[in-house]
Automatic annotation (TrEMBL):
Name the UniProt record assigns to this protein: Xanthine/CO dehydrogenase XdhC/CoxF family maturation factor
Positions of the XdhC- CoxI domain: 12-79
InterPro entries linked: MoCofactor_Util/Proc, XdhC_CoxI
Pfam families found in the cross-reference section: XdhC_CoxI
Regions crossing the membrane: none
Protein species of origin: Azospirillum rugosum
Coiled coil: none
Amino acid sequence: MTDDILQQAASWRADGRKVAIATVVSTWGSSPRPVGSQMAVDDSGSMIGSVSGGCIEGAVVDEARKAMADGEPRLMSFGVSNELAWEVGLACGGKVQVYVEAVE
């Protein structure tokens, strides 16, 4: 799957689109994706791959688009949130950190 993600990212770049890659860099507990899982995002918000199985992808796409705009990488951390019902988190009970970086 990683080859498909990187091939799509290369295709987007060849089409003149900006691209960011999100990579799972650490997990704890029952995180839905293992370390090394990746997702590519283009500047329109299109994506391929997964870093959580759907729990946090929207938030990662938003940060990827910001990373493409300002060139700054991000380290995002997600877990279960009991404080705010609308806060982005993992329903499965684990924790995950995702590194997001624009591709130059």
